[in-house]
């Protein structure tokens, strides 16, 4: 018995020496074309007041000519520039998307081509609105194992091609865009991760190549306000800290009411939860990295601050990570 305990301690010490991935650059891309609530009200039975009251959304960016891979590539190039990293240094490209125009080549391979990341392997991750966080988990696993040292993680979506623009229940909610981060191996730091799925509730949010996206809004709302606080408590419990000690809690930008409900359930101030969905609407897997880039370029993020990211959505899936900026 003593020998087993001794061996376990040795293994744990070895794991502690392994690298973790730290974000060293961010980038984003939003299409120029904007549809505000007033414009939407011209074609569906809605109003600016109705949309803002129920969602917090004022406008959304819509891709008229841009493809998902183009937006992903533009965000990636900005992240590489911000990180001071050459495309040739990238070992892996992970793209979280559920709205790519093609099944293959995958979006990640298109990004490799457009950015010149000739030494990278790439593939796509489809976990809907949780996709970016799960792709970030994947990057951490490759870096921790020693397989990769520099990973480009992207969330890119063209949701406008998946919604019925005559259905006010869905068309008001979504927008297009892409966000990216460059993750590099470092010896110091921490990253606590958790991810979950419940396929039995998958019918609450359904999309396919043959039909428009369909959503049971009430079910998704109840799921999010129940599971996201649990996820935050799971991560902070693992880290041995209290939720109020976290500097920034960056949630998937789905709905203002969801974010406010999560804050209330945890007895946290709304100011701890940054928001930009009023400008961009729900960009699915792109929402978290777009917000990170905005915060980074506004100099809101400071080295050493604690960050918690949480995504939730179709699947149903929910995932989070707690790390040091």
Automatic annotation (TrEMBL):
Residues 253-257 are annotated as: ACP-binding. SUPFAM superfamilies: Thiolase-like. Catalyzes the condensation reaction of fatty acid synthesis by the addition to an acyl acceptor of two carbons from malonyl-ACP. Catalyzes the first condensation reaction which initiates fatty acid synthesis and may therefore play a role in governing the total rate of fatty acid production. Possesses both acetoacetyl-ACP synthase and acetyl transacylase activities. Its substrate specificity determines the biosynthesis of branched-chain and/or straight-chain of fatty acids. It is found in: Cytoplasm. Residues 238-325 form the Beta-ketoacyl-[acyl-carrier-protein] synthase III C-terminal domain. Pfam families: ACP_syn_III (PF08545), ACP_syn_III_C (PF08541). It catalyses: (2S)-2-methylbutanoyl-CoA + malonyl-[ACP] + H(+) = (4S)-4-methyl-3-oxohexanoyl-[ACP] + CO2 + CoA; 2-methylpropanoyl-CoA + malonyl-[ACP] + H(+) = 4-methyl-3-oxopentanoyl-[ACP] + CO2 + CoA; 3-methylbutanoyl-CoA + malonyl-[ACP] + H(+) = 5-methyl-3-oxohexanoyl-[ACP] + CO2 + CoA; malonyl-[ACP] + acetyl-CoA + H(+) = 3-oxobutanoyl-[ACP] + CO2 + CoA. NCBIfam families: fabH, PRK09352.1. The active site is at 129, 252, 282. It is an enzyme of class 2 (transferase). Its EC number is 2.3.1.180. GO terms for cellular component: cytoplasm. This is Beta-ketoacyl-[acyl-carrier-protein] synthase III. The last Arg residue of the ACP-binding site is essential for the weak association between ACP/AcpP and FabH.
